[in-house]
Fold:
Amino acid sequence: MSREEWACLSFLSGFCNRTRSRCRQTILCRLAVPFAGNLDEEYNAVMIVPTGIGASIGGFAGDALPSARLLASAVDNLVTHPNVMNGAMIYWPIPNALYVEGFALDRFAAGEWALRPARPTRSNRIGLVLDRAIKEDMKIRHLQVADAMRASLGIDVSGYAVTDKPLEVELSMTADGTSWGTLGNPDCLIACAQSLVEQGCTAIAVVAVFPEEDEDHLQAYREGSAVDAIAGAEAIISHLVTRELNVPCAHAPCLQPLDASEDVSPKAAAEELGYTFLPCVLAGLSNAPQIQIRSTLSSRSPSVLTAGGVNAVIVPSTACGGSAVLSLVASGAKLITVGNNTTSINVTPASLGLPAIAVSNYLEAAGVLLADRNGILGAALDPEIRRIPDLGQ
Structure:
């Protein structure tokens, strides 16, 4: 597949719209081969809120962060992704959360990649890619963010580079209201990012100019009642860099500031605070785990986490068809589905023939994790419990 073809893929291609038999076949072919790393012996969970599907929790600006903080408190390590952690100008450091780009998360779940958490003594050196189409005033704003993160938080933003040509991002929306997009010059993005990697950068932040959104849809999103129109295209940008260069990557859109409005939902308010969405990206990438190709690992490799070490995966109840979910369930992870995190799609565990633990909200999900981590039979927490079954018959 060419980079151009890849850049034109919809983010939704990761979701399973196959028949039940084909889904089961996919699960079997993605079965991860265990590799014993130290982190695999701890209690690990994966929290996924897919991008661009109108999730009622995690579909706006960092509004899944409280849920991530809660789940992280119930486990040793929580693997999650930028859509959960990013809140534009707002971010929250979760010491035991692994900030993993979506494509890397898929490869990790499939057993092809392992994750090596950043060490306190060696955080990432971040390279900043700026779209050639960014106007001078907004370029200055984004470089000031990088300087502020260096001076105020001590984050190593090592340098920046500008793409040779504008990236030419375009936005699209499907009939069911999910967002995706295309990239006109993917080769320019890869070349620019690769030049930073060759100069010692170990993570890449990308800032690309996005076209103006439909005014009515944008206002509905700001009020908390519409899908994030730019989210699907954002995912394609970071997927492409991670796929080609095997480094952590996250994206911040370059958008013109909006006029103040009293109607903005609290869920979207983080995007109203400043000129850029870059602070949360740099904060997340500073300690993002490095990618390790499984075939290159040895028994002497540093502590890594593999798919075989994941105990549970937590997802919205109607968004269970993603590649990572299918792979993790195949490797033995418990599937926990959250009912009140509604989405614009309808891919349920029942439709895929997947066993699942259904909960109403993330509070209950945290309880399930705590019970499982401590070896407590979930049925013992109900008012009534069935008698022990006779398995000898």
Residues 165 and 268 are 31 Å apart (CA to CA). Confidence is low (pLDDT under 50) at residues 4-37.
